[in-house]
Amino acid sequence: MAGMHGAETDGLRRVARRFGITADAVERASLLTTGQVARVEWVGRDADDFRSGPVEAVRAGLDHLGALLRDRDAELVRQAAAQDEASSARGPGTALPIDGHGDSAAAPGTEGPVPSESIDVDHLQRIAGDPDAVANFLDGVSDQALERLAFTRPDLLGPLEGAPYWARDLANQERLDEALQSAREHGGGQLDGLEQVRRVLDTTPDATLPHLDLTDRGRVYAAVGVGDLDAAGNVTYLVHGINNSVEGQLPAQVESAMNLRDQIALAGTGDVRDVATVAWMGYDSGGMLSVRSDGLAVAGAERLSATLDGFTAARPDDTVDLGVVGHSYGSTAAGLALSDGSQHGVDRFVSMGSAGFVEARDTNGWWPGGKEISRSDFGSTEVYVTEASPDHTADIGRFVSGRLDPRDHGFTEFSADAADGRPGTTGHGHGSSGSDVGYLGPGSNSLYNIGQILTGQYGAVDPGR
Questions:
Q1: Number of neighbours of residue 359 by Cβ within 10 angstroms
Q2: Where are the chain's structural domains?
Q3: Class of the 196-460 domain?
Q4: Which terminus of the chain has a lower count of CB atoms within 10 Å, N or C?
Q5: What is the CATH number of domain 9-90?
Q6: Which residue from 449, 287, 266 is spatially nearest to 355, judged by alpha carbons?
Q7: Nearest Cα residue to 239 out of 114, 399, 349, 118
Q8: pTM of the predicted model, to two decimals?
Q9: What is the pLDDT of residues 397-455, one digit of tens each?
Q10: 3-state secondary structure at position 41
Q11: Which contiguous run of DSSP H or E holds residue 234?
């Protein structure tokens, strides 16, 4: 660690904390990897030896790395304490080098700190609410500077709409690990949600964390992306309905997002690397009592609109196909967002088992007294809607709220029932379990049609009623 001469002690402790967090991640990786290796089938009389050899090799290597990281963690904590003690004894303005052998802030053989590109953080904070301004400002910033910002100011970069998603992922995972460490030490209502997010990120291939909202001390709101949000040619956001939370349903939402990604790739180029999907759990959808009101959908629509505006700002010149899939009350929220006079760059919107589109708006907001919502409110966005024959839950949501059935108001319908050997959706859910087939269940007719829609192949879509 001799390269950190003269580093301020708070910075040293942040680096030490990062070493400790990384060591935790290595330990998790050791358990996951060795478990996977152990499950590989080995045949022959020497099978046990072949199995134990790779497992032990992987475990030994990762355990060694974890121990090394913890040693560095402890070393930096000691050095920070020694520097604090020396500075206190020698008076203000005198820094003790990290190796403890001199009194200059510069490393031996240098003439002082090496200048590096810096980001005007004050300016970035001022424009944080304008994703287009953020994207324009960061366009001239190097990846190295953004990477530094992710670790020095994750609180700023993580939620920053308009910033590159790879950098936001770094910052949000930094925020996640710091919050998780704090929650484990001090408790709090967010521990279950934080652990759920970390678990999903650790076990999902190609997973990223483009969104992490920790402002509600009792809840965690997050979005998990699957695929490269900075480069994929087809990106779709999945918006959940009622009775869904990060704490309980994030794994199921991400599984559905993965199903959706695979189907879009199958319907399109065949290259899953060109597709990204996002399990967007960025709002409180409430429970059965909430479905009667539009209030949570309005709040969700505002948050989703900001997310989509951030995406279009971060990728302004791209020919990316942007889609939104809303399920149940999530289609209510998404419908509000996409009919507010700005389509937020969305090319295609799919509604599954809708709890109803909001009937009345006025020009100043989503309040009663406006006009009946119609296809024209969505501008150039293609809107497709479906509801499976056995889905009676969606009917209840519309009945108790008085919202409109989108199938009866000029939107293009497609089938979620069985066809061409593909099973039909058996209820209201979007995932599949046992004999139950969801709207996004693998192999389902609904998922097949949604893949065709989100790749613009409308002629191949199986129409509804």
A1: 16
A2: 9-90, 196-460
A3: alpha beta
A4: C
A5: 1.10.287
A6: 287
A7: 349
A8: 0.77
A9: 888 888 888 998 889 999 999 999 999 999 888 766 656 899 999 999 999 999 999 99
A10: coil
A11: strand 234-239
